[in-house]
Amino acid sequence: MKFSNQELLKNIQEIGHVSQKELPVKVSYAIAKNISKIESELKIYGKEREKLIDKYAQKVDGKPLSDKNDQIIFKPECKEDWDKDIKALLDIESDINVHKFSFSELNGFKLSAADLMAIDYMIDEK
Question: Domain segments of the chain: what residues?
Answer without folding.
Answer: 2-124
